[in-house]
Amino acid sequence: MLKINLSFFGLILSLVQIYAQSFVIDSTKIYKKKVLSFEEANILSSYYHQEGNHSAITGGIGTEKLSDFANVIDLKLTRYDGRGKKYTYGAEFGVDYYTSASSDKIDTKVSSASSSDVRVYPSLNYSVDNEKTGLILGGNIAFSKEYDYTSIGGGANFSKKSKNQNTEFSAKANVFLDTYSQIVPTEFRSNLPSRQQKKGEIGNAARNSYDLSMTLSQVMSKRFQIALTLDLAYQSGLLSTPFHRVYMNDGSLLRETLPGTRFKIPIGLRANYFIGGKFIIRSFYRYYQDDWGMTSHTAHIELPYKISPFFSVSPFYRYYHQTKIDYFAPYQENKPGAEYFSSDYDLSGFDSQFFGVGVRYIPIKIVANLFAISQMELRGALYNRSDGLSAGILTFHIQFKGF
Amino acid sequence: MIMLKNGKFIVLILLVFCAILFSSCSTVKSSEKAYLNDGEMTLALRKLEKLEINFQLYREGSSGATGGKSGGGCGCN
Questions:
Q1: d(CA A288, CA A295)
Q2: What predicted TM-score, i.e. pTM, was given to this entire model?
Q3: Does one domain contain both A164 and A208?
Q4: pLDDT tens digits, residue range A142-165?
Q5: Which of A109, A244, A289, B24 has its CA 20 to 30 A from that of A210?
C-alpha cells in the first residue's frame, strides 16, 4: 500500500513538474507571439571550379572547365497566436554567376551568350506549426531564371510528430514547371530562318518535374537518431539538352535525344550518433534507381569533433557510384538508327569521391542589441570523378538569430 | 514502367529499418535530448551542404532523398 502511495505521489509530482515546465514555456511563447519577429537569417556563399575533358556540348570530348560563384540569403520571421500555433514566413534569394568554357562551343563561330550567365532564384515559404498536436503544414513557391531556362515551382509539406516527440513523419510534394528556350549548335542552324541563325533558337520546350518525398525519423536513444527518406520523382517533357552534340560511329553528327519521361526512386537512410561529449558520427546512405537504366549508391560520413562548446572541426568523406544510362556511349560510339543517344558523361558509369573539412564557430556575438551572430562555418572540399573530372568547392555560412 | 532490378535491396533496407525502429528504440523524454538537439545532430542537410548538393546534382545522374530539391533549374553546362 505504501508502495502504491509513494508511486502515486511520485506520479503527481512528475505531472506537476511537467505542467510547471510547459506553463513556463507557453507563457514565454505567449509573450513573444503577437508580434511578427525576426527569428533567423543566413548568408551563404560558395565558389566552385571544375576541370575535365568530356564535355557533352562537344560530343563527349573537349574542355569542361567551369566556375560558379553562388550567393544565397534567407530570412525567417515568426509569430505565435497564443493558442500554441507558430507561424513561420520565409524568403530566400539566390544569385549564381558562372562561366563555362564548353558553353562557349555551342556556337563555334562566335562566343556564345551562355558562356557566362547569371541565374537568379527567389523563393517564399510559409508554415504553421501546432506545437500542441505536433502537426506542421506549409507551402512554398519558387522561381529560377537563367539565359535559356525558366523554372516556376510550388509545393506543400506536412509533418506530424508523435506524442512523445520521438517519431516524426513528414511528406513534401513539389512541382516544377520549366521552360527551355532551345538553342542548337552551329552545325544545326543552316536550315533555320535567317533571323534565328545567329542565336540558334528553335523555340521553347517544357520540362516538368513532380516530386513526392516522405521521411520517417526516429529517436533511438538519448544519443542516436535515424531518418529514412523515400522519394518518388517523375519528369516529363524535353529531358535532353538541345545543344549537346552526339557523334555517331559512322561519323555523322546529331543532337542528344533522350526519352520524354523519367521516373526516379531514391531511398536514403541518415543516422547520427553522439559519442562521449565531443564526438559525433553523421552518416548517410542512398540507393537510387530510375527507368533509364541507372542505379547508384551514395555513402557519406562526417565526423564533427567539438574542440570547445563554441568551436568544432568536421572532416567528411563521400563515395558515390553510378551505372550508365541505357542510352549513353562515348564519342563516336553511338550507333546510328538508335532511338535515344547521349554522350553526356554526367550520365555515364563512374565512381566519385568527395572529401574535405569544415570548421564551425559559434560566437554568440550580439550586434546593436538587435540580433546575434549565432554561427559561422567554412568548408572546403575536393571532388574527383573516375572519368577524370576534378573539382573544388569552398563554402561559407554566417547565421544571425533574433532574440 | 520502372524495372526494379534491385527491388530486393530496397525491401531489405526497409526491413532492417523497421526492425530497428520497432525493436530497439526507447522513449526519450524532451529533457533528455541535450545531445540529440545539438546542431550537428540534425537529421537533414545543413545549410552549406545544400550548396554542395547543388553541384553534385549537375555532375551526377541521380538525385533525391537528401532533403534538398530534386527538380527545377537547368544544370546543363
A1: 5
A2: 0.86
A3: yes
A4: 999 988 899 999 999 999 999 888
A5: A244
